[in-house]
Amino acid sequence: MADPIAEVAKKHPAPEGIVYAYGTAGFRTKAEVLDSVMARCGLIAALRSRALGGKSIGVMITASHNPPEDNGVKLVEPLGNMLAEEWEVLSTEMANKATPEDVSAFYREIAERFNIKLSTPAHVVIGRDTRASGARLLSCVLDGVKAAGAEPKDYGFLTTPQLHYMVRCLNTQDTSDAYGTPTEPGYYEKFSEAFKRALGGKKISGSLTVDCANGVGGPKLTELVKYLPPKDQGLEIFVVNDNVIKPESLNVECGADFVKTNQRAPPSSKSGPNDRCCSLDGDADRLVYYFKDSNNMFHLLDGDRIATLVASFLGDLVRHSGLSDILKLGVVQTAYANGAATNYVEQNLKLTVDCTPTGVKHLHHAAAKLDIGVYFEANGHGTVIFSAATLEAIAKHEPRSPAQKESLDVLKACIDLINQSVGDALSDMLLVEVVLAHKNWGPQEWLATYNDLPNRLLKVVVSDRNQFKTTDAERKLVKPDGIQKQIDAEVQKVRQGRSFARASGTEDAVRVYAEAATRAEADDLARKVAEIVK
Ligand code: NG1
Ligand code: ZN
């Protein structure tokens, strides 16, 4: 009898000489060499679903902010979390099997290792961004899922956070933790309804221009807008860079990564002084804000700013609801957070700050230890998570005054507005708008909370980035020998200096970050450290 697993591996052979790795963002590389990886991810997703008794597992086909010719794939756990680490390792091993027979043998080996009955029903939920290669790669995933005898559910185009949302909804349906209706209208209804409640009648001043990176966020935001309150009662949104008909324009001269990296607005931007603008990335899980002041100076309000804004607002709501004795709020950052942001959270907001290695899963893990954990990477990835005990305490809490009730109602609405399955640029954007409306702030007031230290991020190509080993949440190098000492010496030479180097998890390079009291010192420090690691 034919072996369907070997058959599907034969249909999508692995190109020779390529070593794949399930990295911080799943598999990500040139789309033309991903067919075999996609089919094998279909197999792994089916096995993972069976290992969890048939729960739905998500497969997202995207390469986020990467160039249009790239693509990638990540798997999503039942509640919307990132794939369990053990299964990342299995995925890597599966992707690198040489022959169809090896693939089939490894498939059976995994089943044996985890006591998986291959006759158990399995469910795999798939979404993709708008890249030209998406349709072909989807068919490869479907081939893998079907070969494994699992049932696929293809949602077509979705933002990454929408796919996480669908997965969580499907797995919590008909339970007391039901997260929502697992459809696109269900998503728009849930978040627009929470947005209305969270606004609590407050007016939003001015409009918001949203750059969608010419990615999937464009059409999805246009759809979401239809569910939001009319602009005179809510928010006027202008959707720009939403051309998904021309997939080669994805992330080109626009999007959150362009704005954060270049520290300037997309060249196509026509916004005027003090107009609120924001950018999503190619799969709408990253968000950064910015504006031009009356002197035409560009100001970035990045992930650190979103974290500080949201932490300050939620902290106030907890206090004003009468919950501050029992609920502790904290912020989780990575070493890329601006030193001024860390300082502001500790000194002004009087909240704790944890620092973790790069990658959302590390931040998520640290935030999960807090009652309310606000976590954002400086580049705009992030969300807020509430522990089960916190949700229960908030639900049970009896307000002692109308003012307490008002704050409590807004707090509850914010919990519903924040996508609990993963960081979501669209939901984060609505949250920022709510906070600005309550504080009656424009971008200037938001910017005035603290002054960012000038900083520089450089990419250094080295002969072998795997030689670079770090400790202390990536802030210090332990290998190669002696390098950290040289970096420390350079840091000493500038005012308010801080610098570190680490191997990128998504690109073949070492990243150098430096900040200091002035732009010249920050640039100089970055250059010197880059020379040291080269
Ligand atoms: P690497 O390439 O490991 O630095 C980048 C981002 C991360 C995270 C991942 C996943 C920076 C400095 N690094 O990781 O924050 O977003 O991609 O997409 O922005
Ligand atoms: Zn992304």
Short description:
This is Phosphoacetylglucosamine mutase. The protein is 41% helix and 19% strand. The protein has 534 residues and is an alpha/beta fold.
What would your notes on this structure say?
It comes from Lindgomyces ingoldianus. This is Phosphoacetylglucosamine mutase. With 534 residues, the chain is of the alpha/beta class. It has helices at residues 4-11, 35-51, 85-95, 100-113, 134-147, 160-172, 184-199, 217-227, 256-262, 303-320, 339-348, 360-367, 388-396, 402-417, 425-439, 443-447, 483-492, 519-533; strands at 27-30, 56-61, 70-76, 123-128, 151-157, 207-211, 236-240, 276-280, 287-292, 298-301, 329-334, 352-356, 372-376, 382-386, 455-460, 469-471, 476-479, 498-503, 510-515. The protein has four domains: 4-157, Alpha-D-Glucose-1,6-Bisphosphate, Chain A, domain 3; 185-299, Alpha-D-Glucose-1,6-Bisphosphate, subunit A, domain 3 (Alpha-D-Glucose-1,6-Bisphosphate, Chain A, domain 3, 3-Layer(aba) Sandwich); 303-436, Alpha-D-Glucose-1,6-Bisphosphate, Chain A, domain 3; 455-533, TATA-Binding Protein (2-Layer Sandwich). It is built from 18 helices and 19 strands. The strands form five sheets. It has a five-stranded mixed beta sheet with strand order 1-3-2-4-5, with helices on both faces. It has a five-stranded mixed beta sheet with strand order 7-6-8-9-10, with helices on both faces. The protein has a four-stranded mixed beta sheet with strand order 12-11-13-14, sandwiched between helices. Helix 11 links the parallel strand 11 and strand 12. Helix 2 (35-51) packs antiparallel against helix 3, helix 2 (35-51) runs parallel beside helix 4 and helix 10 packs across helix 15. The chain starts with a helix and ends with a helix. The mean pLDDT is 96. The structure holds 2-acetamido-2-deoxy-1-O-phosphono-alpha-D-galactopyranose and zinc ion (ZN). 2-acetamido-2-deoxy-1-O-phosphono-alpha-D-galactopyranose is lined by residues 24-25, 64, 336, 358-359, 377, 379, 381, 504-507, 511.
